[in-house]
Write a structure and sequence with these properties.
The complex is a heterodimer.
Chain A: E1 4-17, E2 20-33, E3 37-41, H1 48-55, E4 63-68, E5 71-72, H2 78-88, E6 89-92, H3 104-112, H4 121-127, H5 143-156, E7 161-165, H6 173-189, E8 193-198, E9 209-214, E10 217-223
Parallel strand pairs in A: 3-8, 3-9, 6-7, 7-8
Antiparallel strand pairs in A: 1-2, 1-4, 4-5, 9-10
Helix pairs in contact in A: 3-5, 4-5, 5-6
Chain B: H1 2-12, H2 14-51, E1 57-64, H3 66-72, E2 78-84, E3 86-91, E4 101-107, E5 119-123, E6 132-135, H4 137-142, E7 150-155, E8 158-169, E9 190-196, H5 197-204, E10 209-216, H6 222-234, E11 238-243, H7 248-289, H8 291-300, H9 304-344, H10 356-378, H11 386-390, H12 407-410, H13 415-426, H14 428-466, E12 471-480, H15 481-488, E13 494-509, E14 512-521, E15 530-531, E16 537-538, E17 545-548, H16 549-555, E18 562-566, E19 575-583, E20 590-594, H17 595-602, E21 607-615, H18 619-626, E22 633-638, H19 639-682, H20 684-692, H21 697-734, H22 747-774, H23 777-782
Parallel strand pairs in B: 4-9, 6-8, 14-20, 17-19
Antiparallel strand pairs in B: 1-10, 1-11, 2-10, 3-4, 3-7, 5-8, 6-9, 7-8, 12-21, 12-22, 13-14, 13-18, 13-21, 15-16, 17-20, 18-19
Classes of the chains: A alpha/beta, B alpha+beta.
Chain lengths: 235, 785
Amino acid sequence: MSNVILKGKKVSKWYKMGEVRVDALKKVTFEIYQGEFIVVLGPSGSGKSTLLNIIGGMDQVSEGELFYQGSPLHGAEESVVTRYRRNAVGFIFQFYNLMPNLTAFENVQLATEIATDPLPAADILAEVGLADRAGHFPAQLSGGEQQRVAVARAVAKNPELLLCDEPTGALDLKTGIQILKLLRDFNIKYKKTVMVITHNASIADMADRVFSLKDGELASVRVIDNPKSPEEVSW
Amino acid sequence: MLWKKTWRELRENKAAYLACITVIAIGLMFFVSMSVIFEGLSSAKNKFYSDYRFADGFAVVRGLSETQMARLASVEGVDRLEGRMVKDVRVFAPEREENIYLRLVSIRPEQVTRLNDVMLLDGAMPAGGSHGILVDPAFLEANNLQPGDTIHVIIAGNQVELSVAGAAFSPEFVYALRNPMDIYPDPLTFGVAYLPLETMQILFGEETLNDIVFTLSAGYTYEDVEGRLKPRLETFGLESIYARKDQFSEVMLAQELQGVQSMVASVPLLFLIVAATILYILFKRMVEQQRGQIGILKALGYSSREILLHYLSYALIIGALGGLLGSLLGFWLSFPLMTVYEEFFNLPGLTGRFSFGYLVISLLFSTGFAGLAGYFGSKEVLKLQPSEAMRPPAPPVAKKTLLEGWHCYWDNLTVQGKMATRNAFRNPGRSFFTLIGVMFAFSLIATTGYFLSITDLLILDQFTKVQTHDVKVVFAAPLDSRDARLELSRLPGVNRFEAYLEVPAIIKQGWYEKDTIVLGLEPNSEMYNLLTKRGVKVPLPPEGLVLSQKLAGNLHAGVGSRLEIESPYAKENPVYAEVVDIVPQHLGTNAYMEINALGRLLGQGHISTAALLAVEEGAYPYLKDRYREAKGVFSVEEKGAMLNKFNELLESYSFTYWILALFGMFTGFAVIYNSGVVSLSERRRELASLRVMGMTPAEVLQVLSFEQWFVSLFGMLAGVPMTMLFLQVMASAMDNDLFSFPVVFELQPFIIGAVGTTVSIWLTQKVIFRKIRRLSMVEALKERD
């Protein structure tokens, strides 16, 4: 657990809403190791999503420093950040965000086409249990199935970092657990870092480490020595 | 994979994109068909001119002998010079209402080649001394004549029988008009016949030649040669000498080519600009609508450039499809269009065709325009941060709209009306799109409508307000007006006589010169009126020249300018006259003068070349009969017959305008339909919510339709100045010596525009209504913004 892949130093982010400045993150410092499973907890408005966006290269920091494997991401050029997103990061969103007019398989291909070292799209789709649904459009799939496509799409790029924003938020318990299991499998099988953002505290039990955010600050970091398996989690 | 997204999206919104493709295709169809016609006409012309040795210079003289002619051929700079006899004769056809004329042109069958040679299409060259003639095929066809048939003509008061030996074209009469005052060739009443010189000399009882054609030696210009020939010809009664560029058929052909060329430049541009504007707005809205998807693509690691290219690919596909479709239609259209040109121009080898070059050019044009529109419409994607893109845009600030202050308006609205009004103001982008769409639709329909109504108006004005005579008697040679009056005004049925003088002339001011006709009119003429733009009669000043606006423009002359006039009718050349007034004139370019003042200026006293008569009903047949074989009278023309002739020709033209109007209507519908459908798809959730609340589809439609009518009203208003702008552009592109389209405010085209637009909106709303009925509430509400 000594291999740091991502490092944030006094990361701040604020938004200007007309005259008012809204601070979303306040001087957050953290390190993320290779192959660990992190859960970020916090109530709405605590800055979870902002942190995820910044880590994922979806947004720029207002102040502070951010390094991926030693290279700075803060103030980096658009092309550098795009390359980082393309090769190092996989995203999973609460509302799946699939391309509505591409099939399940094609949605996965959309990601594998641009990655440098992708996993075979068909295999990944089979791994998430959707081999027989490959030709379906998102509208023809259930919520759980759509989220599995989203997982496959993120995983297929074979990223170092898998970032998940409330991946179970829109799902029922059973389906949610299926998704969490997929995430854990990826984490173990490919030794990649997974970061899950949620306001659901029970999910934290399956993490290696838990970040708790409050009012834009990193309130605590808890290490769990014996994380539960996803099947044991319930809410 | 993004390609699949592109294709599927194009398929899903096919109606909207199809509309754009259609507009582009229409524009390029014009471009390609007109270009093919331009090229076909010019290459056919060049080939015909060179193969049949079209002369470089022309001269008309009173008469000179063969030996004198031979001497002229040795003038420096002249390559080849030939003398001919050219005479107009009337065809004897008592069964026909109208007068029929043949222009007899002598040829020398014994020569192997000739200048302005004839291209034999049918039959054989008549032998010297025979009464055989070669006739232009249009005349033969129009009058149901074939080789072997006979034609009776009146020569010097005697009937002469000529037999048709064959059909032939010559480069000299590609556009065969009897005189420059006619506008369209009318093969039914005018044709050209070629016959051996020997025969002609016998028939007319004259040895002398009255027409000269020549070509230039290499290295000499026409002006060089004109300078040397002119003084020699003057001793033989030179009437006119002119270069090929001023030869009448060539002038018409060149003008038509120029007209086609300007059509090529203006009409397609109009459609492409409309299409590009629509595409631009369409893309702006699509990018806005697909913010979320753009965000995901960016999150996945697609670069801004790749995403921009993706959106650009839509535009390029649309452009390419429109270009391809338009070019193919254009090539196809060039075939029937060319047959129309065949009717007007006696040119061999006119045919539509396929051209790879134009296909490439039109594809470049269409993809270029579409690409630019797509780029500017979607370049916003570059600016979006991925996290920002995935959030819906900040909702527009809700505040009261301006109209809410107008209580009389606002308080009378239904809830749907209020929603619609607020929507229109809160979503300025969307409203703007509809507004632009309606504006273009309205302008296109109104512009075509304008041409439809103005052509009728021009002709009608010319014959009901400008030329108000009933019968025109044209003299074979200028006569003393007083004698003519004495003879004609005492005839039964003649109510009024006015002398009329047509003087061919070259008018010059400094560098500028113009070949035209000066009309001499009686001081208080009631049968030829000069009018202002508003149709008010302008009195003819007792002295000085009145110019048509067009002619004044050509000569850069204004009131007070002193112009130099050269005319075969003048005793001494040149003479000078001062411009005293300028009047608008849309048909032809003339100068006017009081008839006696003109006679004095020319040194000819009281001459006239024709008489304008007001007659009682039924007097025309009597007049026609009386002068059928008279030596001094060339023709007796009834205005009614001319008006009918024009109307017939106009009908064939109006077909073209209707087609254009139909395209305008279709484009208008496409634009409005497009904006309506896009509005619907953007507001599915909102409209579904209304359905959930219990509104009927008709009530939901009201929200959309009220907004559409509301915005369309302003769109139509904006279309009025836009139409005027379109018209200005078209008018200046289509301007020529014969026609100039006045751009005046006419109500009718705007009514046509409003009706066309309204019908389009109504049809669009029918389609939208069906879509609202089919709108699945559950689906629409499940979607996330």
